[in-house]
Amino acid sequence: MNNIFQSTPEDSSGLLLLQVTNLWQREIKKILQPLSLTHPQFMILASIYWFSLKKEEATQISLSNFTQIDPMTTSQIVRNLEKKTFIIRKEHKTDTRAKVVEITNKGVDCIKKAIFEVEEFDKRFFGKLSEKQFLFNELLNILLKLKSQKNRTIKEQHRNPRMNLKNIQ
Question: What are the residue boundaries of the HTH marR-type domain, all occurrences included (predicted)?
């Protein structure tokens, strides 16, 4: 009988990634709960704050692209952050379909606390990797870039069906 599994669970990159992600997300959830934020809300609010510090406009689509959260979910998160008065939405100056999302003073206060807590936790959690943390981040970035390249190629293939997906694997 052929075994379809890796020899041990510790040899399965996907399982290990899932386990580490779940462990990390559970702790992030505990940190953000007292601030009335979910992890996706934190990501969107932190991104809006980041855009504001760089003096760039944040739209729902730019937030979706930046965070890699799908546009419908981003829209729902933005609505919830607006209800909490952490952000406001305004009409875009040139694009009537788009809304500019701006962080409020209440949102800035909240996200500063949240970022501090999350960064402190990340130092403890990922600090256990010591000098290998840089390599870990590099490897994650490689995977993200490969995914991004594949997504671009898939979109191009939809525009040009003759394109061969084997070129990107």
Answer: 10-148
CA dihedral 76, 117, 140, 67 (to 10 degrees): 20
pLDDT band at 144 (very low <50, low <70, confident <90, very high): confident
Are 91 and 119 contained in the same domain? yes
Residues 83-96 have pLDDT tens digits of 999 999 998 888 88
In-domain check, residue 120: yes
Render pLDDT for 44-67 as a digit per residue (tens, 0 to 9). 999 999 999 999 999 999 999 999
- Sign of the CA dihedral with 88 first, then 93, 98, and 100 last: negative
The range of the structural domain enclosing residue 146 comes to 130-169
The verdict on pTM exceeding 0.70 is yes
Q: Which residues contact 87 (CB under 8 A, 6 or more apart)?
A: 45, 48, 78, 81, 101, 102, 103, 104, 107
The helix or strand, by DSSP H or E, that contains position 101, with its residue range, turns out to be: strand 99-103
